Amino acid sequence: MPTTPPTVRQVPAERTFHGDTVTDEFSWLAEKENPETIAYLEAENDWTGKATAHLDGLQTTIFEEIKARTQETDLSVPQRKGSFWYYTRTVEGKQYGIQCRVAAAPDDVSPPATGDGAPLAGEEVLLDGNELAEGKNFFALGTFDVTPDGNRLAYSVDFDGDERFILKVKDLVTGETLADEVPDTFYGSAWSSDGSTLFYITVDDAWRPYRVWRHVVGQQAADDVIVFEEADERFWVGVELTRSEKFIVIDANSKVTSEVRVLAADNPTAEPALIRPRVQGVEYSIDHHGHRFLVLHNEDAEDFALAYTSVDNPGDWVELIPHTPGTRLESVDAFQRHIVVSLRRDGLTGLRVLADGSTDSYDMEFPEPLYSVGLAGNPEYDTNLVRISYTSMVTPDSVYDVDLITRAMELRKRKPVLGGYDPEQYEQYREWAIADDGTRVPISVVARKDVPRNGTAPLLLYGYGSYEISMDPYFSIARLSLLDRGMVYAIAHVRGGGEMGRRWYEDGKMLTKRNTFTDFIACARTLARSSWTSADKIVARGGSAGGLLMGAIANLAPDAFAGIVAQVPFVDPLTSILDPSLPLTVTEWEEWGNPLESADVYAYMKSYSPYENVVKQKYPAILAVTSLNDTRVLYHEPAKWIARLRATAPEGSYLLKTEMGAGHGGPSGRYDSWKEEAFVIAWTLDTVNLA
Which controlled-vocabulary keywords does the entry list (predicted)? Predict the structure, then answer.
């Protein structure tokens, strides 16, 4: 075992843009096929293992806590689609879910009781992830799509973590997996009405989903036809079947612009019809509702409005819900007699219901001060019941069926937390920080009620703040291992996310990106000033674009944190976004700016890029976790970052842990994921002297 951190060969390489020359001494680590790169990553793993060996017992204890609190043999609440109830089952000791169904009685609207998680009577196993993953180090299921008649299943699998899926078709009548097979597909698929034709997506060399294909079951993949191809490198394409099963929807979306096409599901060879040509800066999405398409859009409506247009002749958009500043409409779901709009207001999610043919509406009400709610599945179109998911920082994931006519809400299942979990022992709070420019930034906090408010409690502060993605309050079994040891947990709802509406996002991207970082620092300092904790007891945590946040705050305010966990961190953004040949770079320009064309964007990104701004100073303890096969944030970003931190500020404690056979989401099996989480929790507790 090593006794000192690995040393890294430095090979100065220069890049020059806009008259600025930068030397990158670790750029060679991007050579994934170089044996020296792999040797370095393995050496870092060995060093991390040695440096954390004293935590092995604690990591095992925490893993066992997570395992003991989890009902390992369990069953999701069955969802009705056509003549079947569909559900996922997990089995104690097995890593992956099992996709199943049972026949449904014609008038049965109540799902079968899930009991102790044992198989339901008459169960038909559609797909067993454990069988598919046998002999593999990684397994992920991409598409899982049953035909409208329930006779065929399209599914796709990834065995490397690079999100390139092999698409297959299974005959659910005979149980036979057909010869149809398409390699290198992306998420998303849609069946024609009769189940004879399958639409799927492939990616270009930059990992951008750009083509929609039509496949006739029984034919060779080489005979498949391109239905739509998106030439603009800023746009991703998607495909799906509407809930009504009447239309195939093909959408093209950049970060700020949308365009939608449709074709009748009973005429799969038809030319897709355009709903409205793209207009730069206008986003819209549609759902089919009887004689009309519902259109959720932001044309002259920053927080979005709801309109509709004719199915037979799409044209003008007729207003249904006007724009209301501060109420962000996020999605619309059509049912035969109702419309449900998912929204957020005052930093909380919500659901609004409209009856067909009426302008009256009502918002569902929930009792807790902090919570997250949303629609959950709902494949049936002709129904008065909708399934919703509900959780808070103290309430485990809960599934309700809501009668849209009577408004009655029935709890179908609350995720079991074994071992005597008592929500009355915990309390959640909403705090507010004041950012540098006077903006109030919300913070969600949860802690045991007996935790002292005198600054002595350690605290884990989580943040993300990009892509208008919101980090809403949620429950976590693993988090209990922190809370029950006296640690406070908080989420900083910083700008760049979507928690407070579209303006919240706009004020944390492009040339306002630094607000994301200063907001997070303001949250940390507020929590210390308000006696929740103190600066030497705060550990910050974030992943992906949230890992960029972690790297930035390490440079900007190292005194505000005892430790930082950066998972698959985007810590070398300028280098990556300057290279349009890398996966996803061009699509990212509308989020971060284009430093190739703009000297101002280049200078701004360089001013906050974590890798560019490492200096000789005292840094918090840093744990970086990455994956070799990640196609979203390439492994070499955190590898270079840790190397530069060691070279520039050698007095600090820096650890790099690389999953050598996984992708952006880390280990794929649930037990492996629990072990990874237990490792991070143990490191966190040790950093604040709770180990």
Answer: Hydrolase, Protease, Serine protease
